[in-house]
Amino acid sequence: MKQANQFLAAALLSLATLVPVTSMAQATPEPSKSAAAAASMTDGEVRKIDKDAGKITIKHGDIKHLEMPGMTMVFAAKDKALLDKAKVGDKIQFMVVSENGKMVVTAIEPAK
Predict the structure, then answer these.
(1) What is the pTM of this model?
(2) Is residue 57 part of a domain?
(3) Are 76 and 103 in contact (CB under 8 A)?
(4) Does position 30 have pLDDT exceeding 70, yes or no?
(5) What angle do CA 112, 63, 57 make, to 5 degrees?
(6) What is the domain-level CATH number for residue 52?
(7) Has residue 85 been placed in a domain?
(8) Rg of the chain's alpha carbons, rounded to an integer?
(9) Rounded CA gap, 110 and 45, in Å?
(10) 10 domain residue, yes or no
(11) For residue 25, is it within any domain?
(12) Given 23, 46, 47, 61, which is the most exposed site by the fewest CB atoms within 10 A?
């Protein structure tokens, strides 16, 4: 009987530790999709385009959603047709995601 009481007490304590976590998870509001989309566009300047390889070199500011500081780097284009939206020297806003450890540009727009 003593073991059953100890088991019951341990089970109740385990459940009690989960209650604050689940209530916090439910209380966290989801960000709006438009806010997330606006926050994910990054300012940059096109330095080089290699259409055959499907790559673009961009000098960019901080990429906040990836916690990446500003720098100049080469990105793969998700679709080579994106590279037709810019030319060397253009100021742009772009979306980049990490796919299997590779930085991929998924959208390019002229800077506003």
Answers:
(1) 0.65
(2) yes
(3) yes
(4) no
(5) 75
(6) 2.40.50.320
(7) yes
(8) 23
(9) 10
(10) no
(11) no
(12) 23
**CA-to-CA distance for 28 and 93, rounded, in angstroms?**
30
Q: Kindly list the distances between the CA atom of residue 103 and the CA atoms of 4, 78, 87, 97, 99, in Å, as whole numbers in the listed order.
A: 55, 10, 20, 6, 6
CA angle 96, 94, 34 (to 5 degrees): 85
Place of tokens 């990054």: 42
- Distances in whole angstroms, Cα of residue 45 to Cα of each of 2, 11, 61, 64: 71, 58, 9, 17
Q: How many residues does the chain have?
A: 112
pLDDT tens-digit series, residues 83-108:
999 999 999 999 999 999 899 999 99
Residue 23, pLDDT > 50, answer no
Of 24, 79, 29, whose CA–CA distance to 56 is shortest? 79
The structure tokens 């976590």 sit at 21
Range of the domain at 49: 33-110
State the pLDDT confidence band at 11, using cuts at 50, 70 and 90.
low
Quick check: helix, strand or coil at residue 8? helix
| C-alpha span between 78 and 16 (Å, rounded) | 47
